[in-house]
Amino acid sequence: MADTVSYRPKAGEIPTQPGVYRFRDKNRRVLYVGKAKNLRARLSNYFQPLRSLHERTRRMVTTAASVEWTVVGTEYEALQLEYTWIKEFNPPFNVKFRDDKTYPYLAVTLGDRVPRVMITRNRNIPDARYFGPYTKVWAIRETVDLMLKAFPMRSCSDGVYRRAELTGRPCLLGDIGKCAAPCVGRITPEDHKSLAIDFASFMAGNDSGYLRDLTEKMRQAASTLDYEAAARHRDAIQALEGVLGKSAVVLTDSVDADVFGIAHDELAAAVTQFIVRGGRVRGVRSWVVDKELDVSLGELVETVVQNAYDGPDAPPREILVPELPEDTAELELWLTQRRRETPDPSAPRGRHTGRVELKTAQRGEKAALAQTVEMNAKNALILYKTRRSSDFVARSKALNDIQDALGMDDAPLRMECYDVSHLSGTNIVASMVVFEDGLPRKDQYRRFSIPESTDDTESIHQVISRRLAYLKGDTAEASAPRTAAEAAEDQLAEDTALDAEGAAGADEVVDGSERRRRKFSYPPNLLIVDGGQPQVAAAKRALDESGVTGIQLAGIAKRLEEIWLPDSDFPVILPRNSDALFLIQRLRDEAHRFAITYQRARRKRDIGSVLAEIPGLGPARVKELLKHFGSVAQLRKATPAQIAEVRGVGPTLAAAIFERLANSEGSLPAASSR
Q1: 354 — alpha (psi -120 to 50), left (phi > 0) or beta?
Q2: Strand 426-436 and strand 318-320: pairing?
Q3: Which one of 11, 334, 338, 470 has the lowest number of neighbouring Cβ atoms within 10 Å?
Q4: What is the DSSP string of 621-641?
Q5: 500 CB contacts (<8 Å, ≥6 apart)?
Q6: pLDDT band at residue 502 using 50, 70 and 90 as cut-offs
Q7: DSSP 253-315
């Protein structure tokens, strides 16, 4: 492999000013667009020796045939130009924004002579004011029905409005007081438009002022014995309070903010946005961002924020994000400009002005809200993966793509993945998970305990050797070299192979030996280990020693998501957004989760057995101790006085616990994980 690419420009040719650069392929297609404060410093990162580059960056650089740049005056101009070119060229290696959902919105057509309130999924109505997005249409209908009691503006279609104008008779809403009936002249178009602006202003968060005004009007009407007017104001107040009761209060009533939560892995990121106006959640939105290159959370934040306000929505003055990007000042300037370009006619004077600030919530109610938004993003990512994996067409395509990429004769209908987990070299365990036809078979999961091992490669060799012994028949299984501890652990693994949340096995009616033979002797088409070349080499050694043939072996390196084959100097790179990589990644993550679950269970059993030796300390108090301190490491650091604070533990018992842990410190594992 050459040290670098042939089209690398000379260092002196690249300027040191801010600018935007583009990588193009041989057909002049733009592959990647990026910006830099210093073009020479940034581009030099791409032209390092190829072996030192991130695998996906190396793929982009080697796919490209040329690089070009444009110098700009400021970093802000670089941000603007980068954003424009990404929208224009849609480069395949840039982060891809995808929001395939259409949300229902509440819209007020303030650009019309007689504005109308409506429920729509169309975001392109000229001069319309939008509220939401909402998750359910019925929720918007309930909101509109309550709002019309306080702000009786037009909600009928254009056809109904014209018919009422021609006949001189209002519709039913005009007769029951839920429309001011501008169609028949009960209110002038100018007054009706003012009513529509008040409607939009209330929905935008200026709600406390209207409630105060209505309350004062109700009192004045009651003091003058105008009870009918007082009753109308009372009903309007109740309607508005009903609207406010449908949106959660999360911040003080003076706060307008958008809160973003991002959950991401190597392939995709799920984004959730809470729209807070007047301290209340007025809308929730979520979407997925595809990642082609390995980008940081700060870079993701920049892309997410730019795409969130690439439309008619004006950004609020405060935006809470999980991490500030590198060019926060330039991004704030861009957002401020967007805010000034999209003023809100329904907002109070000055509401659409002011500088937009990007912040990270550190403490208090904003931090609690940010944590809630992040939790929603994590759930959205899990849901996205679950729905994608349940698609039969996607699974079939993934299996065929894996077959082609790895050069297999048949599609890998049965895949097994292995992962090793330990805690500072102690409690070494391994997991085996099984996918058939692209779906997990939890009744065939296995877990192994490894009594002794020098490193992860030795652990992989032991586990693969023990697993392959079952594929050589009963005689080979009986003659396989296994220690007494390994045999006992294998039997324990057979008896407790199911995951905690998995379903019961299907072979419980047969005896132990038959169950082991039926469940453990199916050969996989593809055997995957979690790791790179060293782990694959260890598994290959075990496969050669076993004499078993007809099994394809591969490894997946977590950081770069590379697929390594035995005796290969270069990895197989699957497309970032391919269903094949998604399936292999899910298989690897499931093996990791299963191994960690077993390792934690063994760790708890170890500390539980140590503490159980203390007189007066039963299982309930052991559980309370671990729950209070959160981990064994924190419990070991605690003083007797701190231990005595746990419910049910007195000073005497606390002293005994402290002394027992101190004496057993050498036998308990440290608190660091692989």
Answers
A1: left
A2: unpaired
A3: 11
A4: HHHHHHHHHSSHHHHHH--HH
A5: 597
A6: very low
A7: TT--EEEEEEEE-SSEEEEEEEEEETTEEEEEEEEEEE-SS---HHHHHHHHHHHHTSSSPPP
Coil, strand, or helix at residue 561? coil
More confident residue, 673 or 413: 413
pLDDT, tens digit, 9 for 90 and up, residues 201-256: 777 766 566 677 777 778 877 788 877 777 776 777 766 666 555 555 556 666 78
Cβ-based neighbours of 618, under 8 Å, separated by 6 or more: 612
Cα gap 110→178, rounded to integer Å: 19
Which amino acid is it at 333? L
Amino acid making up residue 466: R
d(C-alpha 626, C-alpha 649), whole Å:
13
* 391 Cβ contact partners less than 8 Å away, ≥ 6 residues apart: none
Is the predicted pLDDT of residue 79 greater than 70, yes or no?
yes
Q: In this model, does residue 350 exceed pLDDT 50? A: no
Indicate the SS3 state at residue 145: helix
3-state secondary structure of 557: strand
Instruction: Locate 456 and state its tokens.
Output: 């992860």
On whether the CB atoms of residues 152 and 177 are closer than 8 A, the answer is yes
User: How does pLDDT run across 507-536, given as a tens digit for each residue?
Assistant: 333 344 444 455 566 788 899 988 888 888
This prediction has a pTM of 0.51
- 650 burial (CB, 10 Å; 0-12 / 13-18 / 19+) is exposed
Give the range among 100-104, 108-112, 444-448 with minimum mean pLDDT. 100-104
Burial degree of 432 (CB within 10 A; 0-12, 13-18, 19+): buried
Distance CA 553, CA 273 (A): 42
User: What pLDDT is stored for residue 226 in this prediction?
Assistant: 77
Average the pLDDT over 382-399 and give the result. Answer: 76
Contact call for residues 235 and 205 (beta carbons, < 8 A): no
- Interatomic CA distance for residues 497 and 493, integer angstroms: 5
Q: What is the DSSP string of 369-392?
A: HHHHHHHHHHHHHHHHHHHHHT-H
Phi-psi region of 567 (alpha: psi -120 to 50; beta: other; left: phi over 0): left
Overall size of the chain counted in residues: 674
Amino acid found at 572: V
Both tokens of residue 601?
A: 């269970």
Closest CA to 78 of 419, 307, 334, 350: 334
Coil, helix or strand at residue 357: strand
Burial class (CB in 10 A: 0-12, 13-18, 19+), 78: buried
Nearest to 430, CA basis, from 460, 400, 388, 408:
460
